[in-house]
Amino acid sequence: MSSIITCSHVDLGYDGHVIVKDLNMDIERGSYISVIGQNGSGKSTFIKTLLGLVRPVSGKIHKNLPANGIGYLPQQTEMQRNFPATAMEVVLSGFLSQKKYRPFYTKKERFTALGQLKKLGILDLSKTCYRELSGGQQQRVLLARALCASGHLLVLDEPVTGLDPAAAKELYRLLKKLNEEDGMAVLMVSHDLSNALKDADHILHIGHEDYFFGTKESYRESEYYQKISGGAVHGIN
Q1: Which domains are delineated in the chain?
Q2: Which ranges carry the ABC transporter domain (predicted)?
């Protein structure tokens, strides 16, 4: 596999304050990385830095991706859950960065959006108002939107928060299918340690100023895992 993002000696933080030091890692095509750690350890800052919303304090991040190479599925706010648009309109919004000054979506974009809805098993909901959908259905709509935004890397921030166990299990299944069958790279922030270890091939554990990055097999043998196995640390379930 080849790298699509490389972090070289990156210090993560904000306003000059470093919260993770000397991060070195590669995100490879088709990889599945779970990002775990205590609340406030720097997971969100890492995601924002990858997305280009926050600059690293030092170091370099090289992206071997097109400008629209990352699809992002953030945590939802209550206002977003009640957004008054159809599922199809929400999915099409994944093309906004490519749309530029065009006042309409192309036929190809509409066809792709319908294809993503079908792939995720919610084509029949395309004309349903987003706020009338269940939490699991909403997450699949947002996943379809993220897939329209990118065919290379999906970045997800605690995507199962607020979902019932059945909906969470289905979302994990869909992510694994996209990873294995479509070769989509997945980077997911999660507090669900058991599923983080079950589905991922690599683990990024962010602590306070330090971190672990490696295969899940090597992670199980690390001091980081020993400290949190069994959910003994606050902020990780």
Answers
A1: 1-65+152-237 (3.40.50.300), 78-151 (no CATH)
A2: 5-233
Burial 90-110, CB ≥16 within 10 A → b, else e: bbbbbbeeeeeeeeebeeebe
Which among 144, 219, 215 is positioned nearest to 182, based on CA atoms? 144
The percent of residues in the chain predicted with pLDDT above 70, rounded, is: 94
Q: Which residues pair with 11 in a beta bridge?
A: 58
Give the pLDDT of residue 28: 96
Query: Tokens at residue 47, please?
Result: 């995601």
Q: Are strands 70-73 and 211-215 parallel, antiparallel or unpaired?
A: unpaired
Phi first, then psi, for residue 160 (nearest 5°) are: -100, 5
Average pLDDT score over residue span 194-201: 90
